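Go through this:
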Amino acid sequence: MLRFSKMWTSGLSNPEAKERAYILCRVGEYRKAATLALSQRKSYTGPANKYDMALPLALSKCGHYRASILVATKLARSTSTLQADLIEIASDCLKNINITSSDVINILDYCKSIRLSPGEAASIAAGIRDQKVQSLFLDEARSRYGYSSEDLNYIAACVSYMKEDIPAALRLLQPNQENGRLSTASAKLSARILSQTGHLYSARRYACFAIRSNRHDAEALNILGHVLYQEAKWKAARKVYSLVHQITADELSKLNMCFILPRVAVSLNDLANAFESFKGNLANFSDQEDFIGIENALRLSFPICLSFYLAYQGSINLKWLLEAYYRIIRSSARKIVNENIFFHSPCGKERSIRFHHSKGHGKIRIGFISRNFHQHSNLQAHQGLIKGLNRDIFEISIIHRHGAIEDTAHIDLNESVDKTIYLSADFGAGCKRIADLKLAVLFFTDIGMFPLDGILPMIRLATHQVTSWGLPHTTGLSEIDHYLRSKIFDDCEDQHEYSESLASINGYLGYFDTATSPLTVKTTDYFMLPPDRFLIGCLQSLHKLHPEFDSYLEEIAKLDESILIVIAAAESNELNQRFIRRIKTAAPTAYKQLCFVQKMTMQDYYSLNSLLDLNLDPIHYGAGITFIETAWCGPPCVTLRGNTVRSAVVSRSYEYAEIVDPPIARSKSEYVNWVRLLMTNAKLRYKLKQEIHQKSKGTIYNNEEYVRSSEAFLQNLAIRGHE
């Protein structure tokens, strides 16, 4: 602490003090920021700037809400450039205190020189907890600022939206639409809500309405670009983001302009064009460009998880693509990364003084971090390891990223560990919370599933950082030290295709317990499937069905007209329609023999699999958790033996379980022949199904070898780190 004081407070000029208080806020050190800002406050000179935001923000984060509001309102009177940010701070403070009607009048009188836009008024109103006081504020704002009835409808809709009451927000916007006097702001809010709720066609219409009013409206263009991305219209989305970039010149819009890939391709050629342009743009994209910084870019453009769909492009080497992509992200986030490294990383100057964890100082602290610790494949892949690690050796923390979904699986996981941490959207505060755990190992289970998830590992908040098969390929991040991978994949990608050091782990992919998987027998009628058809399941996400796989489906459909191929529908109707149009052209026979099933509970999923005659494993990126979930109750799964982890789970699982003559093909013709054989030979099909069910016990299921081997690796890793 003494070192901190000498380095950061001695001999500072007023501008330097303000800037350093601002930096302390950015790294989540709010008490220190408040102390420094208050110590210099009386001697502040010059016009207000963004560094003045440090004091009200720090006071707010430290729980001094009324003081924060006071400072924020005083600042807002002196500068209009910070008004929106200051109102956001004040609104957050209001959510934590009870204010009276007289408080509202006094604040509005004090700020009479400030004019609140309808959006800003909505932000303040949303923070007021008392309904009567909120109504008084809106009445006063209407009389003072001359809001129209349309403005008031918009404000009320914004308040409902901010409180996550989506139906009410749409209902409150309805009168503006009926009057034919829909404002640009109302159109954008409607588009945003409809986009988030999956009504993409309507969202696109409202976004276009706003753009017709102002072709340079970056917010409306952002909404339109994101809707087009969700609809898998990658070319149109890139064009829209190029328009955004012309207006904002930020790096996120440029990344979107260059790297959006189709969520569901309309053809093999469409996918190839997208991938080739991705590679070309990546080669031409300099990470030395004059970026405005990721925080500023986030104010101007929507982030999209651009790297996620790379793995679905086919059997390609992902390492150089992901490394090049993250070099760009690292360059954009350099400032905030370096600041947080200094304060929170064990190798940072400030943290290195305070960080102490060594052999002989109790249990090994390990943290597992994700946004997907709920009923999700990522949790299913890792919960056996998390719950199975020896608590005499390890202290386990679960770290939920901002936006985590709480369900029974989420709660069950929390109850099984020593500590549970929830991160807010505040990046610096999140880094501080993780750093304060003083972890020996930070285990990222699924880097790359959400936009900008790769930035947090760049801080290096533990002595060692590791990952595993939550995403079955390299992360592309040099800051991840080790990739834990089962030895069953030893003949797949080698070390040259990983940025991390490969750690070969004994046993299966993890620990999976069939005792937690109840099976209720149901009929085909329950699933609205015909009882007289040969049911072949391919219950994978549509983006896993590579266009090359269409010809497989076509050949299989041609085997017999009784075949019905059961596909898992996407939640977006636009994606379903896009896939259907592709199949209709590329595989017309299969198109006539397709059936979609909607998302269902896990119990229904088990029951459906028990009714299917066969399952199909897609090529290039096959089944993972979906195979493990159903190997104990489902039919045989025909697979193509791949040479990447993402295409090899089914084939290597059969080999690990020592299935005799498993349905593993080495070519398309073999794949189709396996389907033909198992369709025409019911006795063989039943025998194979029973063999898989029986041999999966003790190999795929209820097998602790992976946990024990991982345990030994992590223990040795922690010990080596302190030698």
User: Anything to note?
Assistant: The longest helix spans residues 268-284. The radius of gyration is 28 Å. The domain at 517-695 is CATH 3.40.50.2000 (Rossmann fold). Residues 1-5, 352-360 have pLDDT under 50 and may be disordered.
